[in-house]
Amino acid sequence: MYQTILYARVSTTDQTAEHQLSHARKAGFKIDRVITDEGVSGVSTPFRHRPEAKRLFDILRAGDVLVVRWVDRLGRNYDDVTTTIRAFMRKGVIIRTVINNFTFDGSTTDPVQKAVRDALIAFMAATAQAQAEATKEAQKAGILHAKADKGKYRGKKPSYNRATLEKVQRLLELGSQSISSIARDCGLSRQTVLRIKDHPENAQKALNRWSASH
């Protein structure tokens, strides 16, 4: 039986997965499952390097439908987006977008339809890259403004306090709970717990930077 999966990427300034699911349903999609990457930058992280995104290549089978809000969810630039779309089409996966309801189907055999499809992929991928570049510039401008306004840019404010950080580190040391379980217990995202696990010194430095300003 075929399945329809919504892939949602949620960054600090992006929509929530719940919003993306709601929009997909309002557009008429019947979603069987949602796969979400949280706290992953769409402008710097290739699709296959995102923890949950790469699982889609194992989960999706020929005839399944992959739904995304727009093609910018499928890569960080032109090459990444086009490579991702073509990889899924080779597997027989149908890709559909919530915005404008575009469909990319690798089973198309009519040469004219294929030409139109491929041209549309190229155009939308180029648009996604232009949007990503604009986002990068906006982020740079925001950082420069913060530096000028406050004298020192402190980076993103941690979603945890010192007590929560210590709790996460204790649970990680015990090793009796999964990353997802620790995230639920501490009220954090799975990606945040993974970052604390992999780079505890950076987590501590982030807290110190923000604590020093108070």
Describe the structure.
- The chain is an alpha/beta fold.
- The chain contains 8 helices and 5 strands; from the N terminus they run E-H-E-H-E-H-E-E-H-H-H-H-H.
- Helices cover 51% and strands 11% of the residues.
- A 5-stranded mixed sheet has the order 2-1-3-4-5, sandwiched between helices.
- Helix 3 crosses helix 4.
- It is globular.
- It starts with a strand and ends with a helix.
- The model has no long low-confidence stretch (mean pLDDT 83).
Structural class: alpha/beta
Total domain count: 2
Radius of gyration: 20 Å
What proportion of the residues form beta strands (DSSP E)?
5-15%
Sequence of strands across the biggest β-sheet:
2-1-3-4-5
Query: How would you name the CATH homologous superfamily of the largest domain?
Result: Resolvase, N-terminal catalytic domain
Which spans of ≥5 residues are poorly predicted at pLDDT below 50? none
For this structure, the CATH topology of the largest domain is: Rossmann fold
Q: Quick one: CATH class of the largest domain? A: Alpha Beta
Q: SSE order, as H and E?
A: EHEHEHEEHHHHH
Globally, the shape reads globular
Helicity range: 40-55%
**CATH architecture field of the largest domain:** 3-Layer(aba) Sandwich
The biggest sheet, with number of strands, parallel, antiparallel or mixed sense and barrel status, is:
5 strands, mixed
Summarize model confidence as the mean pLDDT: 83
In whole angstroms, how far apart are the ends? 57 Å
